[in-house]
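Open question from group meeting: does this chain pack into something compact, or does most of it stay loose? Before anyone orders reagents, we agreed to write out a predicted structure and look at it together. Recording both the input and the output here so the notebook holds the full record.
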Amino acid sequence: AAQPAAPSLYARACAARHQPETTPTTPRQHSRALGTVEFGSGEQAVRQSAELWLAGPTRMRYVISNGSVNKNVFLLEAAGMGWLSAEVTGRPAEKWEAYSDPAIERETLLRWELARFPWGWSEVLAEAGSETRTFVMRAAEGEVVIELDEALLPTSASYAGVDAQLADWAAATDSGRLHPRVWSWSGPSGRRTEQFDTWADGWIFFDE
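Structure tokens returned:
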């Protein structure tokens, strides 16, 4: 009798993350993560709370706060269209200022690709050998490169001078899909490490 075909590399990569091979037919495909971000290292390190909303390759809300005093809110509405609100206790309510940073846009694209991988990469994986662990996709400013470990989970990624290292995978609180708890960034914005204690990927970005 004929032996059943071995699962494709794409199917194996989906299984590694505990996610279906097709994206859900629902608007609830956005992510919300809570944790901390640490800038620098050693005695010079500064740690703050972090809240991330991710809704697309060019749509993101990122809140950094040191508690009850200062809060910076970064919004990326579309490519080339960002906003910043720096709030300080005792001062007037939030005021939005136009804010453009190509590095943040590149990070947002990487976040989106890594949060969903291998969704959107089926053709790339289909053309690769079964033992391939480095994958490349063209984007507006060059190549998005994602490397997998032997468990077929993304371990690093790069795009246009921005690099991310991923570690400590855990299940999302709502879907059970695996996400990295630790994201270590390097690039034009310097070095920082995020640790997300909770990650949920069944949100709608336009919720309050």
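Observations to bring back to the group:
Helices lie at 9-16, 102-116, 122-126.
The chain has three helices and twelve strands.
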